[in-house]
Amino acid sequence: MPKQFHPVAEITTTSGYDGEVRLKPLSRFSIEYILKKSLQIGTSYDSLVSLKLEKTIGLGKRMRFRFEGIDSHNKAKNIIGKTIFASTNADDAINLIGSDLLGFNIVTSSGTIVGKLKDVMWLPSNDVYVVFNGEKEFLVPIVPEIVLSVNYEEEKILISSIDGLIN
Known about the structure:
single chain, mainly beta, Elongation Factor Tu (Ef-tu), domain 3, SH3 type barrels, 6-stranded mixed beta sheet, 5-stranded antiparallel beta sheet
């Protein structure tokens, strides 16, 4: 079962005297989830505390964030190094790239076992699974046409049987 909250960013530094912070994104969905989802902050799933975005300043890589209750430089310094978690649903795309999938078996729709998920690479056009079968690695694009389903109970990811993908 996918987690209810997914890590999306790490607070890296303060910016200014009004409690603004800068973030290191942990996935391509980070900014979208921070702006649209309910948030939690903490160092692990066991220590999460509710967090609400007050406003954003700037655009792109220079974007700064201010959260409710963090209104001074000192309060902002206290949250450096903590992780921001966003609420997720079972069908959210971010569940296809979580670190909890590492070690899952990759199986084609025809039943062929491709290998185990070794890593997830975050590339400009789309993310890819790095799959290792004991001899060599395969890159599997994480797109709806290829990744059909994720089964958390069986620790299995089902992919399409496309010619040339794993040959």
